[in-house]
Amino acid sequence: MDFTSKHCVPCEGGIDPYKLTQAQEYLKAVEGWEILEGDTLKLQRKFEFKDFKEAMGFVNKVADLANSEDHHPNINIHSYKKVNITLYTHAIGGLSENDYIMAAKINQLV
């Protein structure tokens, strides 16, 4: 499944988030990401860069991508060169195709 050729579609709710089995199936298409389980399923990937400047450059690229796709991740910068990105569709409280599209496109930035 190639999510990189797709674009995020605005979601205002009204659809069900993916169940764990569907989320796991789609996970195979986004290398390096993991599913965080809890009340809300989320995708997360941890990145580590050589220094702060490189980490911030990556974060800025993710921000540009998020604005162009109108789907915004949670970004955590820590230990000066580590970046954790968490994706889920806020409007439905879980995972949707948009999250996998963003994960695949973020992978292309590395």
UniProtKB/TrEMBL annotation:
MF (Gene Ontology): 4-alpha-hydroxytetrahydrobiopterin dehydratase activity
Keywords: Lyase
A GO biological process held by the record: tetrahydrobiopterin biosynthetic process
Reactions listed under catalytic activity: (4aS,6R)-4a-hydroxy-L-erythro-5,6,7,8-tetrahydrobiopterin = (6R)-L-erythro-6,7-dihydrobiopterin + H2O
EC number(s) per entry: 4.2.1.96
Top-level taxon of the source organism: Bacteria
Family matches, as CDD domains: PCD_DCoH_subfamily_a (cd00913)
Family: Belongs to the pterin-4-alpha-carbinolamine dehydratase family.
PANTHER family in UniProt: PTERIN-4-ALPHA-CARBINOLAMINE DEHYDRATASE
Name the UniProt record assigns to this protein: Putative pterin-4-alpha-carbinolamine dehydratase
Organism (species): Candidatus Daviesbacteria bacterium RIFCSPHIGHO2_02_FULL_36_13
